[in-house]
Amino acid sequence: MQPKNYDAWPALPYAEFSETAHVLHMLVQAIGKTKLITPFEPHWANVALWLTYRGFTTGPISYQQGIFSIELDLIEHKVICQTSWSTVKYFDIKSGSVAELTHNLFATLHELGINKKINLMPQEIPNPIAFDQDTTVRQYNAALANAWMRIMTSTYIVLQRYHARFRGITPPVGLMWGTFDLRDARYLNVAVPTEGINSDYIRRNAMDVAQVEVGFWHGNPQYQKPAYFSFTYPQPKDIEKSIIQPKAARWDKTLGEFIFDYDDVRTSTRPAEDLQAFFESTYAAGSTQAHWDPTLLGKGIPV
Questions:
Q1: Which of 102, 133, 164 is the last residue of a domain?
Q2: Of the residues 133, 159, 191, which one is the last residue of a structural domain?
């Protein structure tokens, strides 16, 4: 039975979480990069991390004649590496440097007989520092890391319902380790020119067809609060004038997308319903103005 004091929508103050978020983001990036050896799927669907009841996992990664997986446990705060040849190793996540944590990751894999090299430079962040050179000691707040995971869990439950209604192309809900957001993406098989982003290999393979994406991220220095987001790409003209739900949600001119602050969800008397309304109404706004086929959205099956 779930404890009565379980908080499904806990507070996540940006300033207090920022150091822990950096540690987790870089660790998740290092873990996620091990998935780059898996067969490429359109829009990087193969590299996402999947939610578990304790955190996130890579899922199975082929290696030689077997498979391995890496799990991020945010209840006991460990990274657990397991193989199909019956070996398991783990190390603790704690205050320290990104260099130490990523060294521990690949040392642990080496102990399991997995010799995997990755590009040590983080992706999709401003002013990146190579993992092995990021030696600044940062505090890891286990309570806030666990709070972040519980938000992800509650968000995933809503995203599952949103995800299930779409009849078109949509990969599973996952954590994109480059941008550190839990997202659901819906794609329309209509090519979008990529000439302007040819120098960006990641974006060129992510933004090559029309899409509507929604999700959650903990914020950044330009927007210092956790929030839910929704954007349509290419952006339809006048989409910012659309009426969306709930009332607290809005268009953010600076970010160029719809935003629903997490604190407005957390303090709502019906957080899951409000969040569902945000996802559904922003998809309706984007897909309608972009002239998507309305039959792509099914009614779903009641449960």
A1: 133
A2: 133
